[in-house]
Amino acid sequence: MQRVTHFIDGRWVEEAGAHDRPVIDPATEETIAEVAVGTAETIDRAVLAAKKAQREWALVPAPLRAELLYKLGGLLKAHKERLAQTLTRENGKPIDEARGEVQEAIDMAFYMAGEGRRLFGQTTPSELRDKFAMSVRVPVGVVGLITPWNFPIAIASWKAFPALVAGNAVVWKPASETPLMAHLLSELVAQAGFPPGVFNVVYVGGSVAERLVEHPDVPVISFTGSTAVGRTIAERGGRLLKRVSLEMGGKNAVIVMDDADLDLATEAILWCAYGTSGQRCTACSRVLVHVAVKAELERRLLDGIRRLKVGPGLDPEVRVGPVINAASLQKITSYVEIGQREGAKLLAGGHVLNDGPYAKGFYFAPTLFTDVKPDARIAQEEIFGPVLSLIAFESLEEAIAVNNSVAYGLSSSIFTRDVNAVFRAMRDLDTGIVYVNAGTTGAEIHLPFGGSKATGNGHRDSGIQALDVFTEWRSIYVDFSGKLQRAQIDVRYE
Ligand code: UN1
Question: Exposure of 379 by Cβ count < 10 A (0-12 exposed, 13-18 middle, 19+ buried)?
Answer without folding.
Answer: buried
